[in-house]
Amino acid sequence: MSKGQVFAGVVRWPGGASMVAPPGTLGGVFRLDVGGTQWEHLTHGLPAECHVPCLTVDPHDSSRIYAGTQEGPYLSTDAGNSWARLNFPHQDLQVWAIAVHPRDPRKLYVGTSPLGVFISEDGGGSFRAARGVDYGDVADMRGFRNRVMRFGFNPQRPEEMFAALEVRGVIRSLDGGESWMDCSENLIQLAEQAHLKSAIITTHTAEGMLDVHALAISPAAPETPIIALRMGLFRSEDHGAHWQDLEMRKRTPIFYGRDVRVSPHDPNMLYATMSTAANGATGTVWRSTDLGRNWARFDTPTQAESTMMAVAPSPSDRAVVYAAARKGQVFGTQDEGATWQNVPLPPGCSAVMALAVT
């Protein structure tokens, strides 16, 4: 009986100042059996050298895998063996986020760069833009194109949704994604504190607090979104009006938050990745068993040699968790973190952005 599979999304952007991929750089989707050691490059219907910053497993059917690319969303209905591009009309938009409605498997949400939110109600046969989105104040991005990075649903009332934006904060919808309001005012206010100031690509010291990479909402706290951003982990207990610092910097000297996930098996358990920077020299995985009040290092004794970009708990086996570092390392545990296996992606996978487990 299969233990499940691991999927890695790889882009061909090397990071740093250069956007030109050196010879031998790989992109696309790669697949690994849980516990296995051999990665397979999945190219049947998916361009071999495409950029894949987003992977989503359909919560209603784990054989359906969505991949966001620089030329739109793709879908595999056979666990990655073959792929087809969805009828997304915007060839010039990069897809960085895909979500399936928790109660309606035919309703999809796609988030893009430049910023855009698109909705399909027929399984990807057609898409329309959300009718109104307030992205907050526009800052001088100096060429950086903001991105929709992650969608999250209130598990009790999925018409309430949140989206994480890089570098633009958080937005919220109360009508199932049709219209969105900015939830970043308090993030900007928090950046008035010296230790939460950060400006790298703009002149705005609130930039770090708006550099949101991931968002998760637990069924145990359905109205409390938790976000991972440059300055750590934060949560809101009033629908995004105010945000509370989970103070990861008091636990670890590296607190750049890239991913946060809720365990599919325990709604009180969270996983998060902490690193030094977007293209840093190391990273770690942390776990909380009490909805973020306390945290402990989870991936010891792994030694990531670049930013820990993603963590993916298995939906079918609570003991299985995988994590991916930017420059191609993938770590997996099958015993709830007691031991870890290092399964690096093939040479040339130097920019891993996404990870998913079935």
Describe this structure in words.
The radius of gyration is 18 Å and the shape is globular. A hairpin with an 8-residue loop joins strand 19 and strand 20 (244-245). With 358 residues, it is mainly β. It has helices at 185-190, 207-210, and strands spanning 5-10, 28-33, 40-42, 54-57, 65-69, 72-76, 84-85, 94-100, 108-113, 116-120, 128-129, 132-133, 147-153, 161-166, 169-173, 179-182, 212-216, 226-229, 232-235, 244-245, 256-262, 270-275, 283-288, 296-297, 308-313, 321-325, 330-333, 341-342, 352-357. It contains 2 helices and 29 strands. The strands form 7 sheets. The protein has a 5-stranded mixed β-sheet with strand order 12-16-15-14-13, with no helix packed on it. Strands 3-2-1-29 form a 4-stranded antiparallel β-sheet, with no helix packed on it.
Care to give the gist of this entry?
With 358 residues, this protein is an all-beta fold.
Question: How would you describe this structure in keywords?
Answer:
358 residues, four-stranded antiparallel beta sheet
Tally of separate helices = 2
User: What is the topology, as strand order, of the major beta sheet?
Assistant: 12-16-15-14-13
Mean pLDDT over all positions: 93
* Outline: globular
Distance between the termini: 13 Å
The radius of gyration over CA amounts to: 18 Å
Major sheet, described briefly? 5 strands, mixed
Assign a percent range to the helix content.
under 10%
Content-based structural category: mainly beta
Proportion of residues in extended strands: 35-45%
Low-confidence stretches: none
Give a count of the beta strands, DSSP E runs of length 2 or more: 29
